[in-house]
Amino acid sequence: MRTHYYNKIITVLIIGLILMQLIPARPVMAAFDQKAYYTEISKKLEDMANKYNIPPVLLKAIVWMESGWKQYELDATTGLPLTDKPLIGRDGIGIGIMQISSYNSTDTATIERLKNDIDYNIEVGCQMLNQKWRAYPKIGNGDRNVLENWYFAVWGYNSWDSRNNPNFITGKSAYQDSVFSLMGQKYNSAITFAPGATKLSKSLLPPVNPPSLASCWSTPTSVHLGDLVINESSLISSGGGPSADAANGDYWYNYARWGSYYALGFYITAYSSPLVTDKTILSQKILSSYGKLLAEADTLACESKDSSYATAAKYYWTVLQGPSLDASISGRANTGYLSASGKLLAEADKLALDGTGPSLKSAVQDYSTILQGESLNGDLGEKAKKGLLGVYNKLLDEADKLALLGTDSSNANAAKDYLIVQQGPMLDATLTERAKIGYQKTNGAVSNPDPVPTPIPTPTPTPTPTPTPQPVVPSIIRLSGIRAEDTAINISQAGWADNSSPVVLLARVDRFQDALAAAPLAKKLKAPLLLTSPYQLDTAVLQEMKRLGSGSKVYVIGGEGAIKKTVTNALTAANLPFERISGDTAADTAAEIARKMGPSTQVILASSTSFPDALSASAPAATLGIPILLTEKNTLPDSTQRILKDFSVTKTIVVGGKFAISTAFDSKGGALESYGPLRLAGNTKYDTMLQIVKHFDQDPTSIVIVTGENFPDGLSGGAFAALTGSPMLLIPKDGLNDDTKTYLGSLCGKTTKMYVLGGTGVIGTANETLISELLTK
Known about the structure:
The protein is an alpha/beta fold. Among the domains are: about 40-205, Lysozyme (Orthogonal Bundle); about 475-775, no CATH class. Helix content is about 50%, strand content about 10%. The protein has a 4-stranded parallel β-sheet with strand order 3-14-12-13. Helix 26 links the parallel strand 12 (about 700-705) and strand 13 (about 730). The longest helix is centred in the middle third of the chain and has 28 residues, at about 325-355. The protein is globular and about 85 Å long.
């Protein structure tokens, strides 16, 4: 009986085993170790943050805001990353853990890497954050381990516009405020951001727009230190990636004289740390940076224009925020700051007295720059407030008059004036409210119809109506980059296909003379003109040369004093042969460029000390193959005279007025009398530009727009404009004079494409829109 029982059990077990073999087993899913996952991500963020000298706690908070620390979407059931589904932002653009949104949409290799390589995604995000640190106003002494000093960089990482201005948004926190709160709540309970303690005072911020790039800011109290691992060597010379992605002081110190503005932050971060006990080397580097920055500020303060005064004041301010290591340097910086700010105030007062629309708008910008941030002189601030209130009243009175007319054009102009007051610093709540109400009434208001007489019927048959032609709306293409070198690369990529130019011209980024004189040679060689720091060749520039197929030759414009051997050594190391075209002076170099081009009976003569006229002339000169020669104001250089004689020149087009180039040259008996002088000049640089554009009368099917306030973004513009024989127009960041408006209006229906060279920091979107409207009406 018992044997039979056991036999039955054995039979059941055998059948069970057979069934187990036949029925697939359900896999047992290993539990997702969330703690281990986040520990690994945390380590990646810490390592990359320290490589780029960013406080890890700050990077962690930004990444949590961007993606919740996710590179991929997560399985809803298991929580596991779905590695075949990279995280894409709701806008359809942002990629991965850092939500990278700045990339070339045709560069599939980079896009795939951003999607599938989390380390690369984090590194690109760190590089972008450092770009924002450089692009937007510095706070305090620039110590990178002081979390408050990152406020504007974090603002810019998300979007440098009004949607992150705490004064403008309602119902939610600004992006950067949320990041700052998150640092304390999630990652370090010891970091407590009391309301108002670390966020910049809303009263100092503009009511709508982001702050002026030239504004000066102190670090708000209380100060909170981050968790950056202080590595003296990294901060001084080795931090970050190659070239422009460097996150160390020495790279930016050697980049250009104004590069000390960025270098100081790295040096001061190490200097301020108690972990660095021997501060001898750092003190020397800080003092050297002060010297270079003060020299740059002194130069800008002598340029007699408001944008230069504002930048000079910012540089003087930067020196005053750093450690006081030399009383004479501090005194020089203090004197310079007060002088530059005083000049800016005087320029604003002059513009306010002028009383015209564009002048009043510029006055608002200048007064606002003085008022945004901090001032070392309370009296200066009070004068700026008084001046700004006066301008507000003028703008509102003019806007009220225009609004009473009730026509489309008067309402549109009134709305613009109301908006200027709304967006400026709020000094009087009554005026701000008046501007707000006025703007609401005139922006998009229905105009009063003009009386139309009743037509008298006639027996004349009604003709077949002709369709009303639709205005040609020009396409707008903006070519810009974080730096002028990047803008030049983007211009090159827009104008020259892969492997299309075996020859490239390379000029110094921070001097206009060589690059502008080289534009006609670039056109003759059918080559783009790229830019470089005088001290080292940027990796991105080298990569662009290789893309172009420049295995034949690189023409280096300028001698070893202009472009150092370190640059040409880099060309040699990359197997790129080069040839220098240079002379002892800028005029000598321009003459050598002319000889390289070959004889021409026509030349253009421009000032060697003022860029706008030469920049305006570079496009037609390149298109027509006319050499650009340079001169001092009162002395015609020997090298220039030799070209005039050797080329048997019969026509010399002098660009610029008497303050740029003496009229004695083209007067009877002057140095140019035998060479057919013709002067193109106006009362301002923009008037001169129009004289040049109208004289050469180039095909306006496409036009190129560059800033007239500074030269770097326009240096490559002449060679680019020459590709299509297009005119190149200089404009300010905001506003246009009446003559420029009239000229652009005359191109209506003719221009189908407009290239804007440089970012919105140099040519505002308002001007871009205005030009488009003028070309369409």
